[in-house]
Amino acid sequence: MHQKEFVAKDGLAYTITINVSGEEITVSQGTESLGVIDLKRVINPRGSNYYLVTVLDLEKCKRIGLGEASLRYHREVFRLPLTANGDVREGRRSNESQLTRDGIIFIQKMRAKQVVEAEDFHDAFSEDE
User: Fold this and answer.
1) Which of 8, 45, 70, 86 is the most exposed place for a label (fewest CB within 10 A)?
2) Do the beta carbons of residue 23 and residue 41 sit within 8 Å?
3) What is the pLDDT of residues 43-66, one digit of tens each?
4) DSSP characters for 66-92?
């Protein structure tokens, strides 16, 4: 398990925890779990390994820098690219198969900052969505 304290834009300290496999990032404050990002490790036979973001569930801690800090920490620990395509769920229990508008915008911003790499997916997160 990998763990890091992070002071968010709201001035409060949060804990970012990544499990050993790198497939779950949790954000908490004290004993309260505030959000999770699920990822799937993809091992490509051509040698390009990466993690695919499958769930973004950070509703309780949006817009204070925790999502970006979590993804940057993941890249720092595992040293593999992160990607996201059009099939990211907005929450673990969600019946929806697609991200909300906030999630789409978040992934676009992370791509612009080169935290998340673009999937060769015909612009899965275009401005028209």
Assistant:
1) 45
2) yes
3) 888 778 999 998 899 889 889 999
4) HHHHHHHHHHHHH---EEE-TT-BSST
